[in-house]
Task: inverse folding
């Protein structure tokens, strides 16, 4: 039997990894809730119509599609096989019939075909109906063609392309052989037709290909896909529940997402996203609270050396205006965003290649070189961008965020106004954030920003502005692992293992276990009667902190041996004292 | 634009539902951890080879299959189209070549074909190699056939059936025309061949059909499926990590599963399962702890009127032995299991239909009618089943479980030894459990039992016995909703909303907010400066318990107005007093 394996790019999280992940997730969840965010969960599967077109072509390619059910797929394949068989048969017979009708009528038909108006299902239907019901085209085979196409159209297996192929095939044959075939016997027509069909294999394949068109089949068999991020389901939820939602709506969502990306180190096909968003208010209090939440998360995770980079799309647009680069913002921002990776020279080269003049590039670097504290940089930029409405909106908003932080009695430690932060070509329109841990070579562990219109993609007229932040759990995990920041308690499983020597001491131990658990102490008993060594080994392997050893003597005296498994120290104490020590 | 919708059978969990679900899940999770169970998470997607064959044919049908990626699908379709085109072309040319070789050699080949040994890829390869390399069959087209088949075989698009179709096609043609085609010109052969191909469309379709065989494509495009339960992924995890796992292994797992079932009231296509299992020990301590955990879960969820039904497969097998119904256990247990639903008369009818004699049925009802306390019923059954090894094992185990409960200082309140509990045709081998809430018409909210061999399905030689319990979150939720058992605190979002009148009071409020949150009180501020009424409305709609109203006067005095949103009462208190009151 084959050894079981995991699908590429997916992971199991065993107990020790789970304990650490839960430490991160519980920390973040608690902070989200302290700040008034409420949980939302959406299903793993969404309709493809919800997902497609939201992440660009590349994103659509990376959607995991879910097959509707095993049965449909084989059904549809049988339909295709049967239908294409009958279709070709009936096409052949249509041609026979065709040469049986009066010449004049036939020429009209050829003319009609040449206009190629048969590409729309309704027109083809109408045409067939006309010829069928007026009895100009007679017989079982026309009927068969009619019902076959009818069936294919109704079962959504035939699309316009398919009908165009059929019309093209029929009209090409008739055009090619119109003169050649007149006054021939049915056998002769059949012969020529067979030869024609086999010689025009490509045409035949296009027809079959149109039926078994992968996209057509895929859309038939798969109407669902796995969630690609948490933002689109959130927007979908807001649109669907708009009337029950109280604005401003503060939700957080912690769930896995799936991407059919090529797996590589640190990139998985299933990973958790951890988002908090406020929609329905433009207040910069939300931005300030995002900074506060990030600070609190980092503090609670024991991460001290990090920076929260903050910028504003308005500042970036102001820079573009000032440099006279309006219309070329994308090239500009993409290049700026790479400053970290490719350095000043690299950005210089890239911008030159993109057609920026050297005075523009010099101007840019002068701006990016603005030095000083956050406030100083803002003051300086306010002057430089004085003529740009966007620029002033940006610096104004950022100033207010810093002011608000003060009103919260918080400082701007760790917060860095970074003019070069662009956050790709994303849909952000206001403040943008990114968090980096300075001691490790790991990308940003958190990012987010303000957007203008959450529900636009779903055709919502109401303009719902919002701002959100997302934490990268895998990167936080890797960083904390590298920096050895997980508290020791996180690693242990149960706190106490009750050990025993025989059924009598085990029985006594069960009552103790009840007391320990009643006090909320995670604890267990070695279930089988076995050697003490085996029980202590079990505790060691599972990193259980204490062993409570119950022997005959302990049962009599009530003074129990409690052994600290790390230090090896052991004491004799009553169960009440032990519980008191372990709880406090 | 189409209104967005949810896939059939799936749900969003909005904030208020989430709060209640989290109450249930946190309760269960905490109890699992108190009992020494450790968390495990496995990926949503598993390889189909892991999933199929584990849930019976019906289960296999209900698996949601995931397409490997968008790209592959269209790739494979192109491959199929191209390959079938070239294949048919090269088959034709193979036939031309064939009639160019000496008669004697050709007859040998026909004989060979008639034996139809070409159905295995290796043999077809070998055969083609022989003819290709000995230059008996020459030319580009044989080479093309060779490489085409090679390609199809290597890309796993050709299976045995496909190769059988090709061999059959070639051999049929050659047999049909062997005499007819001798000494003809290439053009004549071509003509006959074309005619043959088109007349034998069915054959051609079988060939194309074999390539676009739905199962073949499905297995090509889908090697993954969504998790159907948590037991199979758990078993897969244990097999894959056997060397790192310390036995006994106690894991719990709380994750969604997916089933392509027809959605209906209370049955969803995505739902959470919540399992705890111990593997690697036969100790009945595990069974006793399952009873204790259920009791604790029900207690913490405020559910008081429920019963934990317990039985043992040994008891059931003992009954079958005693009734002389060995070999008919399934019919017997299935019928017994329905006692609740169809009553005694119904079971009687069903058993009669299944061919049970009336003395067997009378004997059964006498056994099922055993009255008394759990202990009394066990004592009585020990006598009745005295001759059955299985029966005595069952009653013995159950007695020990009740003994162990006493040793834990627990009673058997709520626990009911139910001889009629069978738990379907599942893989349980020892104790079985089922929990019902008595006040509501909802099926069992929990169930489980002991099984002999967790990892057998993965070919593991080691026999890992275990016992597990599963809670039905949706049913628990529905029951608690119906019985109004969710604590009021669960329903609220933030505990405090800070309200204000202008920027100055809002600014003062921000500092208060920082203090509230530092004390761990979930709280928020209305972000925009707006009318007090709107802020209080917001608090009401979100069921925020208290509003802390900051006016000019409050700012001066430091005596803040705190309003209880439910009672309407308001007091003037300092922030420290407020925090003290809210925390304790």
Result:
């Amino acid at each position: 039997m084959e050894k079981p394996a995991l699908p590429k790019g997916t992971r199991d999280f065993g107990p020790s990894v789970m304990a650490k992940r839960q430490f991160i997730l519980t920390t973040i969840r608690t902070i989200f809730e302290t700040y008034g965010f409420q949980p939302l969960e959406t299903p793993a599967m969404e309709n493809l119509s919800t997902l497609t077109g939201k992440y660009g072509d590349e994103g659509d390619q990376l959607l995991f599609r879910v097959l509707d059910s095993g049965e449909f797929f084989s059904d549809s394949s049988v339909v295709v096989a049967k239908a294409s068989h009958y279709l070709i048969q009936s096409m052949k017979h249509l041609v026979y019939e065709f040469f049986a009708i009066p010449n004049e009528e036939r020429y009209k038909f050829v003319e009609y075909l040449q206009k190629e108006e048969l590409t729309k299902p309704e027109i083809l239907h109408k045409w067939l109906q006309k010829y069928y019901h007026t009895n100009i085209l007679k017989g079982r085979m026309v009927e068969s063609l009619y019902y076959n196409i009818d069936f294919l159209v109704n079962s959504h297996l035939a699309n316009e392309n398919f009908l165009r192929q059929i019309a093209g095939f029929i009209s090409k044959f008739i055009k090619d052989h119109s003169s050649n075939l007149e006054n021939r016997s049915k056998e002769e027509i059949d012969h020529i037709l067979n030869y024609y069909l086999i010689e025009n294999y490509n045409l035949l394949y296009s027809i079959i290909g149109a039926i078994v068109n992968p996209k057509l089949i895929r859309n038939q068999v798969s109407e669902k896909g796995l969630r690609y991020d948490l933002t689109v389901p959130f927007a979908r939820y807001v649109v669907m529940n708009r009337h029950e939602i109280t604005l401003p709506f503060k939700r957080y969502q912690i769930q896995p997402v799936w991407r059919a990306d090529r797996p590589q180190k640190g990139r998985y096909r299933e990973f958790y996203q951890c988002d908090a968003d406020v929609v329905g208010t433009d207040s910069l209090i939300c931005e300030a609270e995002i900074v506060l939440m990030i600070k609190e998360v980092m503090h609670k995770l024991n991460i001290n050396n990090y920076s929260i980079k903050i910028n504003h799309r308005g500042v970036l647009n102001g820079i573009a205006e000032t440099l006279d680069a309006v219309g070329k913002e994308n090239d500009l921002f993409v290049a700026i965003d790479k400053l970290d990776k490719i350095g000043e020279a690299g950005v210089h080269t890239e911008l030159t290649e993109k057609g920026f003049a050297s005075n523009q590039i010099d101007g840019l670097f002068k701006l990016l070189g603005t030095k000083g504290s956050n406030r100083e940089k803002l003051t300086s930029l306010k002057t430089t961008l004085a003529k740009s409405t966007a620029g002033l909106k940006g610096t104004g908003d950022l100033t207010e965020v810093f002011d608000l932080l003060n009103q919260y009695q918080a400082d701007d430690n760790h917060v860095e106004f970074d003019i070069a932060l662009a956050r790709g070509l994303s849909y952000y329109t206001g403040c943008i954030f990114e968090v980096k841990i300075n001691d490790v070579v790991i990308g940003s562990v958190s990012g987010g920003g303000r957007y203008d219109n959450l529900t636009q993609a779903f055709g919502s007229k109401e303009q719902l502005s919002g701002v959100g932040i997302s934490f990268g759990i895998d990167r936080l995990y890797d960083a904390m692992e590298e920096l050895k920041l997980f508290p020791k308690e996180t690693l242990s499983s149960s706190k106490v293992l009750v050990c025993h020597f025989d059924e009598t001491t085990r029985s006594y131990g069960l009552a103790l276990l009840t007391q320990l658990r009643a006090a909320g102490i995670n604890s267990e008993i070695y279930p089988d009667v076995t050697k003490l060594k085996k029980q202590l080994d079990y505790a060691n392997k599972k990193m259980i902190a204490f062993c409570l050893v119950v022997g005959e003597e302990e049962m009599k005296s009530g003074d129990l041996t409690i052994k600290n498994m790390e230090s090896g120290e052991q004491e004799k104490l009553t169960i009440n004292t032990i519980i008191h020590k372990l709880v406090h």
Summary: The first helix of chain B runs from residue 15 to 34. Chain B has a mean pLDDT of 83. The CA atoms of residues 492 and 541 of chain B lie 10 Å apart. DSSP finds 25 helices and 16 strands in chain B.
